[in-house]
Amino acid sequence: MLRGRRLWQSLGARKCWGDMRVRISGRPRVLLVAADESGSRSLASILRKDKYDVFTTTKADKALAYAVKHHLNLAILDLSVERLDGLDLCEKLRLSSTAPIMVLADGAEAGAKVEAFNRGADQYLARPFGADEFWSAVRALLRRSLAFGPAPAAISIGDLKIDMAQRKASLGGRPIRLTRKEFDLLACLAQNQDRVVPSKMILKRIWGLDYSDTQTLRVHVANLRKKIEEDPSAPRYILTHLGVGFRLATPQGRRLRAAAAAG
């Protein structure tokens, strides 16, 4: 296991910095934000070797602009990126995209992991790490990205069943009576299960591009919790990420986050 720049060098770096290419259809699009150019060259190189379309930058503003303009399949963020606190950038990326976010950090403290997850991260990789561990994390996140294939006709999360085609939901085999907006909200979260969906994006998708009444969203979330949660005051399905959005948690997702936080 190697630290810092020695790890990047051990992965076989090539000259590939700042290459913003036209995306070839079918290639996963990855945003890589690093603290310095040399720190990302080898990661970008091995991603491109596996036919990923990679945009790299050291600038937070360029990363945000790219995320807004393009549909991302994955964002990889070094928390030591300059000119903007890494977690602030993570949160801003989450507000711009529902793509999975993996953060790279120098420490593995439980508090830092929890904070990263609360700010929108899906994966936390602490240095030192090797190429195999990095690849396993990348592929696991890409498997969860909605960009690969159409949304399923039905989704099951524990006892919660959501039939997209019939626009029906059930809990433990019992039908749940939902309003149109409540079903749309549940479907939106279910299609992004275990990922934080920004409030802004939910409002745009369900209420329209110019709708920004977060109070309406909170009311609908509260009503939905009353119908699907055993204890709405201590939800296990629909979780709030303050200042960011909401996440529909699966049993597996809860276990993985608990294990990652425990370190």
What's a concise summary of this model?
The protein is of the alpha/beta class. The chain has 10 helices and 12 strands. The chain folds into 2 domains: 4-148, Rossmann fold (3-Layer(aba) Sandwich), CATH 3.40.50; 154-261, Winged helix-like DNA-binding domain superfamily/Winged helix DNA-binding domain (Arc Repressor Mutant, subunit A).
List keywords for this structure.
single chain; 263 residues; alpha/beta; Rossmann fold; Arc Repressor Mutant, subunit A; 2 domains; 5-stranded parallel β-sheet; 4-stranded antiparallel β-sheet; 10 helices; 12 strands; disordered N terminus
Please outline the major beta sheet. Answer: 5 strands, parallel
Number of strands: 12
CATH class of the largest domain: Alpha Beta
Level-2 CATH architecture of the largest domain: 3-Layer(aba) Sandwich
Q: With helices defined by DSSP (H or I, 4 residues minimum), what is the helix count?
A: 10
Q: Briefly note the CATH topology name of the largest domain.
A: Rossmann fold
Which structural class do the helices and strands define?
alpha/beta
Q: Judging from the principal axes of the Cα atoms, what is the shape?
A: globular
- Largest sheet strand order: 2-1-3-4-5
Radius of gyration, in angstroms, nearest whole number: 19 Å
Fraction in helix: 40-55%
Order of helices and strands: HEHEHEHEHEHEEEEHEHHEEH
Describe the 3D structure:
It is a single chain. The protein is an alpha/beta fold and 263 residues long. It folds into two domains: 4-148, 3-Layer(aba) Sandwich (Rossmann fold), CATH 3.40.50.2300; 154-261, Arc Repressor Mutant, subunit A (Orthogonal Bundle). Helix content is 41%, strand content 19%. It contains ten helices and twelve strands. The strands form three sheets. Strands 2-1-3-4-5 form a five-stranded parallel β-sheet, with helices on both faces. A hairpin with a 2-residue loop joins strand 8 and strand 9 (174-176). Helix 3 packs parallel to helix 4. It is globular and about 55 Å long. Residues 1-25 have low confidence and may be disordered.
